[in-house]
Design a protein that fits this description.
3% strand, 115 residues, mainly alpha
Length: 115
């Protein structure tokens, strides 16, 4: 059950969609970013991937996750089992990461809907 939930979170992040441009808290238009999440997204085999979607997700990651968190999360695209193992881990650091990751996933869905 938990593995399925982790897999759904990954599919959700990879397939989320939204506005033409991602608008931050200031309301200013932000160009799409590149980084570890974007590269992992683009190299995935998911049908919904695109440079715009992956760049939008990276923009949200830049606002939501540290560089270290982004590197950790980017590995989930190629290895969903790693996401499951992190989610199931009993370590306080993995629990804290997973809370940040879930918040990032929710923000990505909201910001990137429609890509």
């Amino acid at each position: 059950m938990k593995f399925l939930a982790a897999l759904l979170v990954m599919a959700f992040v990879a397939g989320c969609g939204g506005n033409r441009f991602d608008r931050g808290d200031s309301g200013a238009v932000t160009r799409f970013s590149t980084g570890p999440i974007s590269r992992a997204c683009l190299s995935s085999d998911r049908k919904a991937r695109s440079a715009r979607l992956c760049g939008c997700i990276q923009t949200v990651a830049n606002r939501s996750l540290s560089s270290s968190d982004q590197r950790k999360a980017s590995r989930f695209f190629a290895d969903p089992q790693r996401a499951h193992d992190t989610w199931m881990s009993q370590s306080p650091s993995d629990d804290a990461f997973w809370d940040r990751y879930k918040a990032f996933a929710a923000r990505s869905e909201q910001s990137c809907r429609g890509y």
